[in-house]
User: Fold these one by one.
Assistant:
Number 1:
Amino acid sequence: MKKDPKTKTLYGQELLDLIANRIHEYGITPQKGVIVDSSVRHIASKISVQDGDKEAMIKSYLEEVKRSLLLNITQYEKSNTSMRSENKRRRYR
């Protein structure tokens, strides 16, 4: 790799340092959102390694699951309604 004659550092070193710092930040930031694998053991494992109020984390996770379920139910209801409408139109033709 080439060095910058002015700074005596490798070209692109600032970018490499920035990337390394960002990776480190992501590693120490607690994970948020719904865990894809919904097994109780997996969720318990994820929560057990976090610092803080475990009950609050569980409550937060369950609220996220609730929001996700309600969103999916709404989408399925819309889909089913449009399918029913299409079936009715076909019958009356």
Number 2:
Amino acid sequence: MSDLTLTNFAGSVRTSIAGAPRRGYVALVAIWTRRSRSRRHLKHLDAHLLRDIGVTEWNAQREAERPFWD
């Protein structure tokens, strides 16, 4: 039986190709979607809101430009 390892920010998720890998893919796509949405929202926050959460404008811009898979 072959194994496929998907890695995300929480570590490795091991799923079997012969088994039910869809759950692994669905979880990975959900993580990517959440990251993309969060970064898109972060990109549009005003300077005073960024200060409220303790993030500089430079850091917010840098985070917003990262790809969803990273």
Number 3:
Amino acid sequence: MVSSEIKMRVAQNCNGYRPVYYMRLVNSITYGSESCSSCVNYVREKCTEGLFDEIRETISVN
């Protein structure tokens, strides 16, 4: 299982990130945060675009 922090860092560096909800409620805890969990391309804990592993490796190197 991938940690929430890793998902957030990957989403922030992903050019394929597309949020499920474009409108966020101001009172929402997730307001302004990006995460793979909130991406349309992240289904069943897997990136359907095949970008997650590549970006995670790049982040870990830097």
Number 4:
Amino acid sequence: MADYDKEEIWKEFQEKQNMTASELGNWLETKESKNAGKEMDNGETIGHRAGRAILSIKEKDKEDLTSANWDRINDAVGYYHQNLHPSQKPSNNIEHSNWYYALKNWGHDALK
């Protein structure tokens, strides 16, 4: 397991996760979700895989999280730090941008 404070990353993860499990699950079924981001060897994008892992986390009780879950939470928090910086936000057409789609894959709806 990586070196991080679980309570600190849990708090930030909860603050940035503004999609319900149902919303995230429905989003992950869309063409936009499946095509947003860098594709891996198996054809799935990195963000879509992350979204599936985040959905799994959202469906668990905190005390049932595995070390792999905690590592994914830490990765998500790092992703939020990088991509929610104002310099990353598109200046127009946000709703149809890859930036918006990618953030939704990670459980954050930037238009909420």
